[in-house]
Amino acid sequence: MVVSEKPVRILVVDADEATRWFLRLILSKGHYEVFAVSDAEEALSRAAEYPPRLVVLDLSLAIQGGQQFWKKLRSLSPAPAPVLVVSDLPPHEAKAALTELDADDYLAKPFRASAALERVRALLHPALDSRWSGPAIDIGDLRIDRLGRCAFRDGRQIDLTPTEFNLLTYLAQNADHATSSKKILQAVWGPEYGDTQTLRVHVANLRKKIEPDPAAPRYILTEPGLGYCLASANLKGGKGDRP
């Protein structure tokens, strides 16, 4: 007899009914078991009864509930559950609160279904290396601040569009592993997207911003017949070094 694996349980805590409905819909389609509640008291009650593997939490509710609510919510999981904070505040305004709350990742409202699923999957299944599961990714002199949604090379901020930031983050999460164009497109643009020309254009633009010589890239390498790879060894400082 084959025993099916239980779906991963996610707790959504958001006062906005439309956001709860949208997250319940897209996460359920991603084969997660979703409980959605509207306030801190109900969140603690549901988490005690059904401990979640991950919490999606509105920033305003987190602030209103205070640190005791925040700590209690995380402690109700068998292992401290990662927390994805969602907010309609701009990242630079939300960052101080996110740092204080020790959030694992941040998603600005309004958001696309593909973006929410990509963040959830990254938190539940850190890509290839547990170092990439925290709020920042450091590879040599490249730092990606996932909460602030900004990136730096050698301490200088890189001017990235939202899509370029998502693309660079995905490549960094899979550093030193060739990733197919199809997987990159699905992760960054959505599961139904398949326009490889769009990906080539964005990779070219990203190379112009981070490569010493975009015509002879050393960091974002093309893997013929497959896709792309971020080569950590070529970034100053080597793989996984911290500034």
Question: Brief description of this entry?
Answer:
By secondary structure, the chain is of the alpha/beta class. It is built from eight helices and twelve strands.
What can you see in these coordinates?
Helix content is 40%, strand content 20%. It is of the alpha/beta class and 243 residues long. A five-stranded parallel sheet has the order 2-1-3-4-5, with helices on both faces. The N and C termini lie far apart (52 Å).
Neighbour order of strands in the largest sheet? 2-1-3-4-5
Number of helices: 8
Ranges where pLDDT stays below 50 over 5 or more residues in a row are 127-132, 237-243
The oligomeric state is single chain
Mean pLDDT level: 80
Number of strands: 12
- Strand proportion, as a percent range, falls in 15-25%
What value does the Rg take, in angstroms?
Answer: 19 Å
| Content-based structural category | alpha/beta
User: In this structure, how is the largest beta sheet organized?
Assistant: 5 strands, parallel
Fraction of residues in H or I helices: 40-55%
Specify the overall morphology.
globular
Spell the H/E element sequence: EHEHEHEHEHEEEEHEHHEE
What gap, in angstroms, lies between the N and C termini? 52 Å
